[in-house]
Amino acid sequence: MALHSDSRPDPDELLESIQRDAQQARTGRLRVYFGANAGVGKTYAMLSAAQRAHRAGTDVLAGVVETHGRSETAELLQGLPRLPPREVPYRDRTLPEFDLDAALARQPAVLLVDELAHSNVEGSRHPKRWQDVRELLDAGIDVWTTLNVQHLESLNGVVGAITGIRVHETVPDTVLDSADEVVLVDVTPDELLLRLKAGKVYLAPQAERAAQNFFRKGNLIALREMALRRTAEHVEDDVRSYRIEQSITPAWNTDGAILACIGPQAGAEQTVRTAARLAGQLNVRWHAAYVETPRLQRLAAAERDRILAVLQLAADLGAQTAVLTGQDLPAALVAHAQALNCATLIVGRRAGVRRRWPWQAGMTQKLATLAPALDVMEVGHTPSTRRIAQTLRRLGNEEPDSGLQHSWRRYAWAVAGSVLATALAAPLHGYFELANIVMLFLMGVVLVAVRQGRGPAALSAVLNVASFDLFFVPPRFSFAVSDVQYFFTFAVMLAVGLLIGQLTAGLRFQARIASSREQRAQSLFELTRDLSAALMASQVVELGRTATERNFGGQAVVLPTDARDQLVLPDPAPEGFDASVADWCLRNAQPAGLATTTLAAHSWHYVPLQAPMRVRGVLALQPAQPRWLLIPEQAKQLHTLARQIAIALERVHYVEVAQGAVVEMESERLRNALLAAISHDVRTPLTSLIGLAESLRDATPPLPAHQASAAAAMVVQSRELNTLVNNLLEMARLQSGAVHLRMDWQSTEEVVGSAIRAAAPALAGREVQARIPADLPLVEFDAVLIERVLVNLLENAAKYGAPPIGVLAHAEPEALVLSVRDQGPGLPPGMQGDAALLFEKFTRGQAESATPGVGLGLAICKAIVDAHQGQIEARNADGGGAEFTLRLPRRPPPPLKEPPAWPA
Question: Which of 703, 550, 562, 717 is nearest to 621 (CA)?
C-alpha cells in the first residue's frame, strides 16, 4: 500500500486491505494445475499432491477426477475418499455428473474437481463447472482443479488460429486471475509426443488422429509458450500484490521494466528512443514519465509543445506514459518507478549545463542516492528536437505565454505589496515594537506568495527587509545600522520570508493540481450518475456530448450505431466533421484524426465507443485546445468518458432487446391463442362442408358432368382447407408446450410405410422409393408424431420437387438418420446458405406461388423433432434436388426376453 512522507501506510488502502483479507478468510482457496495441453500430467500432479495432503491428515475428497483410462492416474485415486456422481438423464441415456449439493453438504477441507472448463449437462444448476467451483469457494471449501491454456477465453481465438481447431469449452480469464495458487505442469513437446505414442494420453486410434491434427510439434511449442507467459503474468501480479500488502517501496528487479525519464531540455526524444530499443531487445515492458514542477509549469508554450511531442513519441513506440506533479523531480521519478516495479531508469545527459554550485549533485547522482537498488542509465545528448504535428500547431489557439509581460506584472504586484506593507506599518511605528511590525512585513510575503508564486515572493522578502531597514530601524531613512543585532534580525527576516514564500508557493501548486484532479473525478462521477438514469439512446448521446464539451471545450458529437451497425450521423454535420473518418474509427476500433497517427490532418479527434461486447459508436471531438489531447491525463480522461458512454449505450441496447423479446413473446402467445381459437371454431363447420361436398359428388343419380366437376373441386379444396386448419391447431399445440411424447420402441420401416400411405392423396401417384435396411434396430420415439413429420416432408417433396422421391434410413451409434429426397430444382435460391429459415413459421420457398400452402409444414416438423431432442436440416442434394434430413437420438434397444418354453 502507498506510504506517506512519514512512512505510514495510507489509511484508506489499509482499510481496503483488511476488508479484502476478511473476505478471503470467509472463502475457500483455489489452486489451479495449469498446463499447455492434455497429457502433460496435470491430473497426476493434482492427485500426487492430494495423496500427500491426505497422509498428512487433511480431509481430501475426490469430487470428480477424469483418468481417461490411464492406469498410472487411476492408481493415485486409491485410498482417497470419493464423492459418488449424480446420475443425470440426458436425452435417451443417463450421464454421471459432479454432485454439487453433496459436496456442499460434505464440506471437505480440500475438494478435487478435475477439468475446470467442462460443460455440465442441461438441467444442472450451473451450465459450466467453473461456476460450480465458484459456489464451492463461496462456501469456504478449498478447491484443486486442472486447466489447459487453450480453454482460456482470451486465448481461444489465438489457439484456433494456430491449431486450426476451435475449442468450444472456455473459462473466463478472471477465474485464473483470481486463483490463489497456479501450479504450472510442464513437459517438453518431444516428451509429450513420446507419451502420445506410448498411449499415455489417448488410446491408439484416437492418439493417431491427435498426432496428425492438434498434437503437431509446432502447435505444442506455441501452446507451451502461451502457458509459460500466462503463468508468468499471474506470478507478476502476485509479486505486485505482495509488495503493496507488505508496503515494500524498493523496486524488485523481477521483470526488468524500464522507466524513461523525460526532461524539459531539447533532445529528450533520444532518451525515449533508447528506452524503446532497450525494451525491445530485453522483451520487457517500459514506461515514460515527465515531472511537472512549479518551475517547469511556467515554461513557454513552444517548450511545452516539445515535451508533449516527446510523450506522444513514447506512446507511439509502445510506452505507458504519465505526467507526474511534484516539487522534487528525482523523488517523484523514484516513487513512480517503485510503484511500477521498474528496475532501470534512463535519463538524458544535459549537454553544456554546468552545476550552479560545486557541491550540487546531478540528476543521475540524486536518483542513485534515493534508490540505490535501481539501475540508472545516462543517454547521450543529440541536437535533434521533436515538434508536435503541424495540424496541432495550426489549430491550437495560442495560450497566454509566461513571457516578459506576464512576469513583470507578477513582480509589479510584489513591489506594490511591499509598498502597501510599508504604508500600513508607518502609522504603527510609535505604538508597536519593531518585532511586531516585522510580522506585518512577513504577512505581505505570504500574501504575495499565495497570489503570485515563488519568484515574486522572494522579491517581496528582499524588498520588505530593505523597507524595514530604511523606514523603521534607527537611524531611519538610511540603510546604516546602529546596532549589529539588527543584521541578525534582517537575516532571519529574509530567511523566514523566503521559506514562507517557498512553502506557500508549493502549497499553491499542489492545491491547483488537486483541484484539477478533483474536477476530473467530479466530472466522471456526474456523468456516471446521469447515464445510470438514462433509458434511451438519445439521452445517452446528449449527456455524453455535454460532458465531453464541459471537459474539453469546443464541439463534441456522439455517434451511436443503428440496427444495421451503421453510424447515426448528425444533421447538419458540424464544420470540419468527416463521416468517412468516423466510419473508419468504428470499423477498426481505433482512434483516428487529430492527435493520432491515422488521418492526422483532420481537425476532429475520433474515439471508438468500445463497450464490453463490441463497439457501440464513435465519439468525435474538436477540442478548444488540441494540445490537450497529447497530455496523458487528458487522453485518459477522454477515453474514460468514451468508455462510460459506450457502456451506457450497450445497457440501453440490451434493455431495448429485452423489451422487444417480451413484446415478441406476448405477440407469439396471443397469435397462437387466436390461431387455436379460430381453428377450433372453424373445424366443426368445415367437417360438415366436407361431408356435404362428398355427398353432392356421390349423389344418386349422378350429377351432370360440369356439376360433378364442381363438386369434386369442392371436395379437394375443402380437404386442403381442413389440412391447413389441422396444421394451425397442431402448431398452436406444439408452441404451447402441451405435447407429451408417447415414447415407445418402434419399427422405422412400419412408420415410413404408414407415412407413405397417409401422404398418398398429396403424392397423386408419384413414385416413392424407400430404402430401409432390413437390420435397422428398433428406435424409441413417438410414432404418430414422427409419421406426421414424414408426411409433411413427402407432401413438401410432391409440391416443390419431382419424382422419384426417396426415403432413406440408417443407424449411427447414437442416432437414427431419416432422409427425404426429391429430384426437383432444390432449395430456393434466396435461401441457399441459410436453409434454417425454411423451418420458420409462415415461411415459403417462394413468396408468390400457385402452389397452395401457408408455410407451416416444415415448422411443424422442426417443432416435433425438437421435442424429441433431435435435429432437422435441409440442403441441396448431390446430383440435384432437395434433401431433408432428421436425426433422432437413439440408444441400444432392450434385449428381447426369451418366450417361455411350452411344456412337453
Answer: 550
- Distance between CA atoms of residues 655 and 536, nearest Å: 9
Query: Which amino acid is it at 765?
Result: G
247: Cβ contacts below 8 Å, ≥ 6 apart: 1, 3, 9
Name residue 412's amino acid. Answer: A
Distance CA 629, CA 638 (A): 8
HEC string of 337-368?
HHHCCEEEEEEECCCCCCCCCCCCCCHHHHHH
The string of pLDDT tens digits covering residues 305-362 is 777 778 888 887 888 888 887 778 888 888 888 888 788 888 887 755 555 555 566 7
Q: Which residues contact 385 (CB under 8 A, 6 or more apart)?
A: 266, 267, 269, 306
CA distances from 697 to 54, 77, 702, 717, 719 (A): 88, 80, 8, 13, 14
Q: What is the pLDDT of residue 224?
A: 87
Cβ–Cβ under 8 Å, residues 665 and 643: no
The pLDDT value recorded for residue 112 is 94
* The three cell numbers locating residue 366: 540524486
Rounded CA separation 322/634 (Å): 10
Torsion of CA 795, 798, 799, 801, to 10 degrees: 130
Nearest residue to 635 via CA among 323, 332, 353: 323
The helix/strand/coil state of 378 is: strand
Strand stretches in 600-755, DSSP E: 605-610, 615-622, 744-746
Phi, psi of 429 (to 5 degrees): -65, -35
896 burial level (CB within 10 Å; 0-12, 13-18, 19+): exposed
Contact 845, 800 (CB under 8 A): yes
Burial 332-366 (b: 16+ CB within 10 A, else e): bbbbbbbebbbbbbbbbbbeeeeeeeeeeeebbeb
Per DSSP, 81 falls in state -
Cα–Cα distance between 477 and 584 in angstroms, integer?
76
- Contact criterion met (CB below 8 Å) for 652 and 540: yes
Give the SS3 label for residue 79. coil
DSSP letter for 598, please.
S
Paired with 145 in beta bridges are: 32, 113
Provide CB contacts within 8 A for 885, sequence distance 6+.
817, 818, 819, 872, 873, 874, 875
Q: Tell me the pLDDT tens digit for each residue of 204-227.
A: 555 556 655 667 778 888 888 888
Q: Quickly tell me which residue has 495441453 as its cell.
A: 37
Nearest to 307 by CA among 288, 320, 294, 326: 288
Positive or negative torsion for Cα 340, 345, 349, 353? positive
Pairing between strand 555-560 and 615-622?
A: antiparallel
DSSP state of 386: -
Strands (E), 20-92: 30-35, 60-64, 86-90
C-alpha–C-alpha distance, residues 402 and 159, integer Å: 56
CA pair distance 210, 737, nearest whole angstrom: 43
Work out the average pLDDT over 751-766. Answer: 84
Residues in CB range of 28: below 8 A, 6 or more apart: 136, 137, 138, 139, 140, 141, 142, 143
CA separation for the pair 328, 293 (Å, rounded): 7
Confidence (pLDDT) at 1: 41
Q: Answer for the pair 32, 147: CB distance below 8 angstroms, yes or no.
A: yes
What is the pTM for the complete model shown? Answer: 0.50
Whether residue 887 contacts residue 866, with contact meaning beta carbons closer than 8 Å, is answered with: no
CA-wise closest residue to 543 among 653, 454, 641, 662: 641
Q: What integer pLDDT is reported at residue 247 of this predicted model?
A: 61
303 grid coordinates: 517548450
Cell numbers of 618, please? 464513435
The distance of Cα 81 from the centroid of its chain, to the nearest Å, equals 40
